[in-house]
Amino acid sequence: MFQNGFFFTRAAKLLIKNALIVSLPILAVAQSVTPPVSGPNVPGPNTEAAASDSATTDDQGQNPPDAQTPPPAPAPPGSTANPIPPRPDAGPKAPAGVLPTAGVTTGPLPYRPGDATRVNGTPSISEKLMGDLPHWIRFEGELRDRVEGYENASFKPNNSDLYDLYRMHLGLLLQPINWIRFYIETSDERAFEKSPAIPPYQNTWDIKKAYVELGDPEGSGFGLRVGRQELFFGNGRLIGNSWWSNVSRSFDAVRGSYDKDGYRVDLFIASVVISRDGVVDHHNEGNNLSGFYGTLKNKIAPHSQIEPYTFWHVQQGASLKGGGLGHLDEWTYGFRFIGTLPANFDYRTEMAIQRGELGPASIKAWTGHWTVGDTLPVYWKPRPFIEYDYASGDPNSKNLNQIQTFDPIYPSTHDKLGIADQIGWRNIRDFRGGLDLHPARKWALNTSYHDFWLANAHDALYPTRGSVVAKDYAGTDGTHIGTEFDAQAIYKPTVQTQIGAGIGHLMAGEFLKDTTKGQNYTYPYFLVDYVF
User: Fold this and answer.
1) What HEC string does 413-425 produce?
2) Which of 516, 522, 530 is nearest to 149 (CA)?
3) Which DSSP state fits 344?
4) In the structure, what pLDDT confidence band is assigned to residue 128 with cuts at 50, 70 and 90?
């Protein structure tokens, strides 16, 4: 489909029919506001490198605020300051100069109402409209359209598709006094020319978030949030909101936090919301996740952050290793360590072990993620980086008394193991090299190369969602899955708008050629995103 140009013809038609219908009003409403200066700054003798607006993201996949952005004007005497809708996660942020994720990738914009005014000195059109509302009420939202497709799904020939994904999120914040907030967000996520149009592609008109929040969870002491909300910890490798999916993830949860002077502690108990198109979404009783997530900022070493955590996942009716359903009681213990070094080097690592039981089987698994990069003080600010990812596999499929395949719980999977999103973080070894470039203030480019191998030849290849891609429990079909080349470009004309395009091409290796039809897989996308 892609070789003969049909993909590009059909993509153009979809863009005209659907994407442009959405994106042109978006760009018309978004006033041209110059975003914060992007690209990592080269630190002087007494300065830190500022995080890049277009190149790097904070721990929630968002761009860090610019260090030069002036604070908002204080509220008039006797009144409450204009409330700012809370970040979706209200989680810890990386210290200045720390690049939490390897590689340029498309993520949620960090915009909050008033940012255009604070950055440019004049409000955008959406901020002007917001200024006519009472100070204790605020709206926020997102309009996003993405055309994407694939060739040779499941590595089979003549198994291709191209479709358009559109979503609208609209949130309302009520803050009658400064220590209490009521928040509700509706969502409408639709798939055009996609069949079947079901989650994670489509979920029409539902409640994405609905919570009450007491206190301030971001840097000012205690906070408590109760209700439907997003959870996102670290880089989302274990618990995330799955922002890239057209239907993102929510939890019915109670979350308490304390954040002060570089220390943060989050405690939560939650149940994931199951998306079902056409009905009001709800969580499944007996499927519970609870945990602790700590953050120590610049306490262990300068310009660093360490994040210890413990997650406890309990589920009724989990799939057993030998078939059937049983009880899951799984504990995950781990830490994440990120920071910068002299000469503009940055690093990050995350390691975790799992213990517990699944039915009659004991769980004994582990995972790791290691990255190092260096931003060079030359034109286009190139940042070469290398990365290694590992997740354990099971050496014996017939041993029903032990499980060694790592469980990534509820991850945000996009671009963790390639933008094609065909490889899940279990029974995997991934050697990655990449290069970030910043040719202009509003532009960011990235190329990456992945070399995928099974961690254990006797276990299966797992996808980012679902059960199994391919398996050879005898272990005779090798362990080399294949290689993937990715390329992405991201343009941010305003602080409220981003346009992204990319392609991932996975070339089948020995294992895929022996266990599937062995066709190469290709995934292209084009995205327009506007937040207000």
Assistant:
1) CCCCCCCCCCCCC
2) 522
3) G
4) confident
pLDDT tens profile 175-224:
999 899 999 999 999 999 998 889 999 999 999 999 999 997 666 789 99
Q: Give the whole-angstrom CA distance, residue 227 versus residue 222.
A: 17
Tell me phi and psi for residue 7, to 5 degrees: -60, -50
- State how beta strands 282-283 and 383-391 pair: unpaired
Residue at 106: amino acid letter: T
Per-residue confidence at 68, pLDDT binned at 50, 70, 90?
Answer: very low
Per-residue pLDDT of 295-335, as tens digits, reads 999 998 899 999 999 999 999 999 999 889 999 999 999 99
Angstrom distances, CA of residue 15 to CA of 22, 190, 238, 246, 522: 9, 15, 34, 17, 19
Half-sphere exposure of 2 (CA within 13 A, CB side): 20
Cβ neighbour number for residue 343 with a 10 Å cutoff: 10
Residue 61 has pLDDT above 60, yes or no: no
Calculate the alpha carbon distances from 221 to 86, 156, 186, 233 in Å: 15, 54, 29, 19
71: exposed, middle or buried (Cβ count in 10 Å: 0-12, 13-18, 19+): exposed
